Amino acid sequence: MPINIAIDGPSGAGKSTIARAASKRLGFIYVDTGALYRAVACHMLSRGISADDEEAVSAELAGLGEDYFSLRFIDGVQHVFCGEEDVSDKIRTPEISMGASNVSAIPAVRKYLFELQRKIARENNIIMDGRDIGTVVLPNADLKIYLTASAEERANRRFKELSAKKDCPPYDKVLADIRQRDYNDMNREIAPLKQADDAVLADTSELNFEEATELVLRLIREKIG
Q1: What does the pLDDT average to over 151-173?
Q2: Using one digit for the tens of pLDDT, what is the confidence trace for 37-82?
Q3: I want to staple 64 with a disulfide (CB 3.0 to 4.6 A). Which of 68, 99, 153, 178 is the partner?
Q4: Residue 7 in contact with residue 216, Cβ under 8 Å?
Q5: Contacts (Cβ under 8 Å, ≥6 apart) of 96
Q6: For the purposes of burial, counting CB atoms within 10 Å of the CB of 60, is it exposed (0-12), middle (13-18) or buried (19 or more)?
Q7: What distance in Å separates the CA atoms of residue 13 and residue 99, rounded to the nearest whole number?
Q8: What percent of the chain has pLDDT over 70?
């Protein structure tokens, strides 16, 4: 049976980078489900559709094939596609991040992506990260980890990441966006962000990247041997 590890947590907690590094060390497939929601938001915005317009988003999805959004592993690295366009770089902006939070609250979007996520998990040893993996997508995961950090520390990390790009927003705006996304994710009606009852809490506020990765690896190895 494939081994499934679920990592949930708020935006900017380091889920993707830590899960990616841990997967590589273990020889597992890394599945960034947040990237799929970002891809949906990216597609909608490119079509001039507001990410919080449930009717318009649902209608647009209905006209797309079931494999329009996909994760493809190229030389062991996950790439995100909208149709045949690789949008892996385009989806890493504050605008797309907020858009992903909005589309993730739409039932049609969650239904559209749900089976794709589970199919990957059924066929591979995976570490999958997101916001409802342990609670909804993979409720029977071999190990569930709730990875978090303070809002201020998460904003610091995101600000450093964005500072290398053009039009970097000020720190206060980054922090406000983090807090707004936390609120949106934790208060949506469908599959809100929360720690699963049987998840292990891992707070990385005081840890650097390598220390946080080692913590996750230790939790996995303790669980699966």
Answers
A1: 89
A2: 999 999 999 999 999 999 999 999 999 988 899 888 887 778 999 9
A3: 68
A4: yes
A5: 38, 41, 42, 45, 90
A6: middle
A7: 18
A8: 100
Per the document, the length of the chain is 225
pTM of the model as a whole: 0.81
pLDDT at 137: 94
3-state secondary structure the chain: CCCEEEEECCCCCCHHHHHHHHHHHHCCEEEEHHHHHHHHHHHHHHCCCCCCCHHHHHHHHHCCCCCCEEEEEECCEEEEEECCEECCCCCCCHHHHHHHHHHCCCHHHHHHHHHHHHHHHHHCCEEEEECCHHHHHCCCCCEEEEEECCHHHHHHHHHHHHCCCCCCCCHHHHHHHHHHHHHHHHHCCCCCCCCCCCCEEEECCCCCHHHHHHHHHHHHHHHHC
